[in-house]
Amino acid sequence: MKTQILIAALFFSGLAAAQQSKDTLKVKNIEAVNIKKQVFKKQSDRFIYDVASSPIAKGTNTFNLLKQTPMISSIDGKSLKIMGKSDVVIYINNKKSNMDAEALIEMLKGTPSEDIQKIEVITTPGSEFQVESNEGVINIVMKKNKNDGYNGTLKMNNEQAYYNNPSAGASFNFRKNKWSVNSNFNTGSWTDRERYTLSNGDSTFRNESFGFNDDPNKNVGGSVNIDYEINKKHSVGFTYNMRYNKSFNSILDVTNWQNGALTNRTINHEDAQTRNHSFNLNYEIKTDSIGSKLTSNVSYLWFNRDKMSTNKSYPITNSSEIDENSPYSALRQSVPQIINNYAANIDYLKKTAKGSTWLMGVSYNHTNTDNDTRQDNLVNNVFVNDINQTNHFIYKERIFGAYLTYERKLSEKLSGKVGARYEMTRSSGEILEKTSFDRNYNNLLPYLNLNYTINSDHNLSYSFSSRIRRPRFWELNPSRTYFTPTNYTQNNPFVLASKYYNQEISYMYKNAFFANLSFNYVEDASNQIPLQGSITGPQKDDKGNIMYDTAGNPIITTTKFLRYIRTNYGNNKQFGLTLGMNKSWFKDIWTTNYSVNLGYNIYSGTVSEDPTTVPDPLYTEQVIPYVINFKNFNISGNINNTIRLSSNKDWFLGLNYYYGSKLKIESGTLGVRQSFDISLKKIMGSWTFVAEVYDLFNQNFNTIRGIQPNGSYNNVTNFEYSRILNIGVTYNFGNQKLKKAREMKSANDAIKSRT
To answer: Do the domain assignments include residue 411?
Structure first.
C-alpha cells in the first residue's frame, strides 16, 4: 500500500510539473484501482471468513455456507466440526445460541446465507466463552441494516435414504421503530435405519450378533426472540425456545450366536418422548459511545425425556424364526429424566480510548436432575422388580463462575489477550436407599493469546487455554441400554470431570493458506469403555427359583458379558497439524476450500473394575482389566469445490470429498471413512432449488476393531445407510435487507449442551 501511495504521488507531481511547463500531455484514460476485499483472514484470536465478499454465499443456507467455511466440515449433514475439536459451539453476534443441537441445525438450514456478514472460527476460545474440553466456537455475524419492514423464508426438504424423510421450516423477521421480532418454526419426520454386526470373545469362546435398528421420529421445534430498544442506551429482550421429539415403536432386532451355534433372538421395542423448553430475559445498557456495555440474563430450562422399552429374548436353534408362544426371557425398563436449570449472569465489556478492551463477568447455574429408573424382569410370565437395576437417582449441581480478560494492541504488529476463568462446582448425588456422594471442586482456567502480523502477507499467533469437561447429565444416570441380555451400555454416576490443556500455533500466508499446530493434554480422561467379564452363581428357573442337581447342590453357571461403561481411564495427549487453503480461481468461477489434518495420539490408562456394580452374596463378578496403551498416527482431509456454471451466477455445481484414515480410539481402531458428495443449485429470483447426494458410494460408516494384550477382542460394525438424496426448495420473501432482532445470550447456555 505504501508503494502504491508513493507511485501515485510521483505521478500527480509529474503531471503538475508538465502543466506548468506547458508541455502537451494528453491523458486519455485513468482507470480506477480495484482493491479486492479480503475474504479469509486471521485477526487476533480468530479466523474470519467474509461471507459477503465470497462468490459462494448466494442462494444457499447458513448450514451449507458453514460447510464451505475453511476449517469447518460436516460429513453427515447433521453436525459441524472444527479441525481436531471434540465439538462445536455456535454463537450468533457474539451470543451463544439458545437452542439444542438438532433444533440449531434446522435453524441454520432455514437461514438464508444473504443474512450473514461474516463467520468467525475460534479454535481456542478465550475465558469469556462458556465452553468445555477442547470445544471450538463458530461465531456467525449477521448483517446490520436498520430498515423497517419484514422478511421471511419458507423451506421444504425431502431426503431419500433407506426411508423417505420429509421436513419443512419457516422463519419470519419483523422490525418497526424500537421493536424487533424474529421467529422460526420447523417440523419433520424421519426414520433412522442402522445395521449392526457385533462380535466379542477370546481364545475360549466367541459371541456374535447381527441385526438392525429402525427408529422413527417426529419433530416440532421453534423459537421467538423479541427485542425492545427503550432508548439509545437501554434495551430489553425475551427469548423462548422449544422442541418436541417423539420416537414411538423403535425396534432393535438382533440374532445371537455363541461359539458358532444359534442361541437366541433379541427384540427390543422402545417408545420415547423428549420435551425441551427454555426462557431467557435479557437487559443491556450501553455505558459509553465507544462500545462499552453491561448485559444481564436470567434463564430457566426444563428438559424431560421419557423412555419405555421392553427387551425380549427368544430361544432358537436352527432358524432365525421365533415362536412367541415358547418360553422366553424378558425385561422391561422405564428410564425418565427431568432436568430443571435456573441461571443468571452479568457481563461487562469495557473499551478504552487507547484501544484496550476489558471483559469481565460472573455467572451462577443451579441444576436439579431426577432420574427414576425402574427395571422389571420376567419371572413365571410376570414382571418382577429387579432391585439391583432399579435406581431413583437425584443429582444436584451448582456452578459459580467468574472471568476476567484483557485485550490490547501492544504495537502495530503485536497484539495480545490474557485472561482467566474461575469455576467453583458443588455437586451431590444420591441413589435413594442405596448410596450417595458429594463432589466439590474448584478450577482456575488461564488463557493467553499472542498475535503477530509479520507483514501484509504473513500472520503468526499462539494460544493457550485450560478447560474442564463435566459429565453429561444422561451419562450420570445409572441405567442400562440393552442390545442383548449380555451386551449393553452402562452409565456411571461416579465419573469425574476431566481437565484439558490446549495449545495452538497458527500461521496464515496471503489470507489464503494456513497452518495450525496443536497440542492437547487431558487428565482424568473419560469415555465409553468395553468391559468384558463374567458373573458366576446359581442357575434359576423361569419362576426365579434356584435349581439343584441330583445331589441337592445348587447348579452353578457362568455367564459372560460385554458392558460398555462410561468411566475415567487415564490420560491422553493429542498432537495435530492442519494445512489448508481457501482460494478462488478464474475470476471466482471456481472456489476451493481444501484442508488436510495430521494427528498423532498417545493414550494411556487402565479400567479394572466397574464402580456401578452392586454386590450380591449369591453371585461373583469378575472383570477382565481393559488396557489403553497405544500411539497412533492418522490423517484426514476435506476437498470442497464450488463451480459457477453460468455467467448469470444462477447455476452452481458442488463437488466435495472427505477421507479419514484408520484411527485408534479408546474402544479400538476406527476403520477408514470416506464420503463423496455432489450438489447442483439453481437460483431463480427469490427461489432456490437444490439437489444433493451425500456419500454417493455408501462409504461413510463405522467399523471398530479392538483387541487386548490378553487376546480378548471386541468388534463393531455400524452401517447407517448414509447415501442420501436430498431435494430442497427455498423461497425468500419481504425486505431482505432487514435487520434482525438483537441476539441474546442465555444464562443457562453452558447447561444445554449437557442434556
So the answer is: yes
